[in-house]
Amino acid sequence: MTDQADRAGSIARTHGFDASKPNVARIYDYLLGGKDNFAADRDAAQRLVEALPNAAAVARANRVFLAAAVRHVAREGITQYVDIGAGLPTAPSVHECARAVSPGARVVYVDNDPVAVTHGQALLETGDGVIAIEGDAREPEAILADPRLARLIDLSRPVCVLLVSMLHFLTAGQADAIVGTFSQRIVPGSYLVISQGAASGPAPREGVQDAYGRQTVLTGRPAAEIAAYFDGFDLVQPGLVPVAGWPAAEPDARLPQPAWPASSQANMLAGVGRKRTVAS
Fold it and tell me: Is residue 45 part of a domain?
């Protein structure tokens, strides 16, 4: 058994979850070329690629977007980041990108997968302003009230909230409530970073659903509904665009800009918004 398999098995025993069932975060890790996944996740990823041949390219483009968005926000002076549904630690990470611009940036990674949180705690928590906590995106108020987050993030000052490639794993109502809560709680000058699966034309939903498991919700939204997430925000150029179209001003060699098929069934829209000051 490899060291990786030993560690994965140990985490599974400690937290009592079923490693034979695929998990969204670990499927994404595999698509990005990571090693923190189980056989069930790799099998599910292969089924996903069979249904959506450009799924891995979409995953890589999404990571490029996240890195470029964080660098942009950091250059605007933001030093606080909350990454919801962060998944497994993957380079380039939010804190690496933010600290390349602002060395003192503080980051809280939040996920409901014990594997993701355990790895985050082991690899990221060095006592210097980067932590991983367990939390359910469907309970945003509980996340914001978590004392561990409060010790690191001052919500009276501008913050960047990231909801990257996770809202489509929720119902439309849940996604709207989550975005609404974070949008209301962050102060003007804060940033919202979102990428979301879009509903645009026919897609092999059955194959995608089979890959993730029938218990996983998959909700693609029309572009107008995704744009509505940014009500009260000024969109950073180029606006709300396909995730591969967001400019990677500083490409990272660890995640080269992926080739994008001319015809794509897997479509994800991405945007970065700055919360406007309310006129008095």
Answer: no
